[in-house]
Amino acid sequence: MNRNEQLFAAAQQHIPGGVNSPVRAFGSVGGTPRFFKKGEGAYVWDADGKKYIDYVGSWGPLILGHAHPAVIEAVTRTAQNGMSFGAPTEGEVEIADLLCQMLPSMQQVRLVSSGTEATMSAIRLARGFTGRDKLVKFEGCYHGHADSLLVKAGSGLLTFGNPSSAGVPAAVAADTIVLPYNDVAALETLFAEQGDKIAALIVEPIAGNMNLVQPSKAFVAAMRKLTQDHGAVLIYDEVMTGFRVGLQCSQGLHGITPDLTCLGKVVGGGLPLAAFGGRADIMGKLAPLGPVYQAGTLSGNPLAVAAGMATLQEISKPGFFEALTAKTKAFADGLNAIGAQFPSDKTISAQAVGGMFGIYCSPSIPHSYNDVMNSDRARFNAFFHAMLEEGVYLAPSAFEAGFVSAAHDDIDIQYTLHATQRVLQNL
Ligand SMILES: *Cc1c(COP(=O)(O)O)cnc(C)c1O
């Protein structure tokens, strides 16, 4: 057994499945998960010392790459003055001001520690604000693991081919309505029939948990108009896309002002920080001002805030997003050029938005959960393992988007493209 295998065997003794989040177990692609011992820039090293170019980036947060000096400096400096107070700190004021400056839709914001907390809290707030119970979400979108959202959720669950979780009360799930992504007619029908019962519509405005799926313009416009017309709260779950697809997130790209926005991943720069915020009249319903309860011992943790601030400052530098977007697009273009050399049952396709990309084992770009389900999963698994052998670490599932960081350089991208060519030739 190599070191990864030894560690995975040992991990299963006292950790269910050997992992603290299911998709890490390589259940969908098979084989032994890599245990990492070091990350630097675009690279990670596993327990056996093998080096990989990392396109997962801790599932999105590491937009600057691993161990960025500015983030490390901010976190170490802050740690010297204490880890946590459970009382307000100046850093929280600074990051709240910055977030509200960066996102015009955000008048007020509250910090939490995970994306799951952000979406769960935003939904409770929307229900408290509207006095309604029904929630609308879309097939293939993942919004964390709160009960009311584990209704045909995507990501890890898709990977296990299990449309919902045990342990979620039927009564809770009954208030969640799941519609197909990009289906304007279904949305119109639903709002016509039940619009006055709907508290909130939550969406991944660019979906990244059923691989990368882009919304149509008509879908984006319909979500905004229908929620507005019926007095429902539009929640943009930008936990993945926030500061990943652009400085103003998906909402900036779409020209949409959502009522509430959820942030996570990049906003914490690799530490547990997330946030939800938006219209002041809605946020004013939160305790201690209003009747909607929400709290957290470690909310606004000083180290997480410091990592987040340092990350947001780096990505706000002139040219940062232009460079990241161009590099990620060049990568996707390169993948498509390689894909064009292969017959449709042996090919790949790709697309990029900002620093996020999708690679599909299918000849065309998917527009829905069904399209993604129809991609060749067995071929993806073979592709994934062959790339791993080549020293390229992609997400271990056909249903996950990938991420390029500022630390990836042209040589890394060229190497990855050459590896892709070799792998497709040999598959
Ligand atoms: C990752 C993710 C979440 C959940 O965030 P956690 O920090 O893992 O709880 C919610 N929504 C979206 C869109 C995500 O990508």
UniProtKB/TrEMBL annotation:
The keyword Cytoplasm applies. One of its GO terms (biological process) is protoporphyrinogen IX biosynthetic process. Gene3D superfamilies: Aspartate Aminotransferase, domain 1 (3.90.1150.10), Type I PLP-dependent aspartate aminotransferase-like (Major domain) (3.40.640.10). It is an enzyme of class 5 (isomerase). Its main location: cytoplasm. SUPFAM superfamilies: PLP-dependent transferases (SSF53383). Its EC number is 5.4.3.8. NCBIfam families: hemL, PRK00062.1. This is Glutamate-1-semialdehyde 2,1-aminomutase. The gene is hemL.
